[in-house]
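Input chain follows. Return structure tokens only.
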Amino acid sequence: MPDGSDQPIPPLLEFGNVSVFNGGRKVIGPLSFTIQEGEHLVILGPNGAGKSSLIKTITREFYPVLEGGDVTFRVRGHDVWDVFVLRSAFGVVSNDLQQAFARDITGRDVVLSGFFSSVGLFNRKISEDMGRKADEILTFLGIAHISTKRMTEMSSGEARRFLIGRALVHDPRTLILDEPTNSLDLHALNAFRQTLRKIAQSGKGIILVTHNLPDIIPEITRVILIKDGRFVADGRKEDLLTDSHIGNLFDVPVRVWKAGGYYYAMEE
């Protein structure tokens, strides 16, 4: 983070020669990449490509193993970090999290639970500052008017926006979204896109993990293509969202086109 000195700002993430096994099977790797603070990028790949495993590695649910040579695994220049570093670096929204919150709890309490990294509040003491921060987030996301609604009564799109609010309570510099538009209808998809664009324009970085091209908001400039647990390409959006790259990624001939700042693909 800038501190008034001439020291360079370390990358948000540095992976070098990182491989991960789960249940005795290699799910990703070896991977090497760097993500800078404030970047807007998408990790795009088919189902089973290793996208969710990569997110779990970033959040330390999975741990890399040594497969010959050195392994680099740094957050903000640190090889070792604690949960407080992760909270300020990343806010994470996933489908697993949405399933965990499918219960009788209000949207506002979902946001407040982010302060405790809990599912629900369980008689936690909410300070005035916490309440004020939660209300600011609800207003920013445009969901204050439904904040007393129960998660069990919400649409998938509404619930996802409250989970985004929960991820923002610690002011993370980057928001990670894992397959965020699953189960959203057209109306909810449009609302989600606008929310995500607003967050990107506010100065927070976006790491979007998806298999859907239309999820890629115009603010995203970098694309990483992942297949069979390996990165197959990493570069500018305009260079990689093409017929050949997307066709090879999904093993199907496609035609890719751009409209209104968004990309779409159709099987040929």
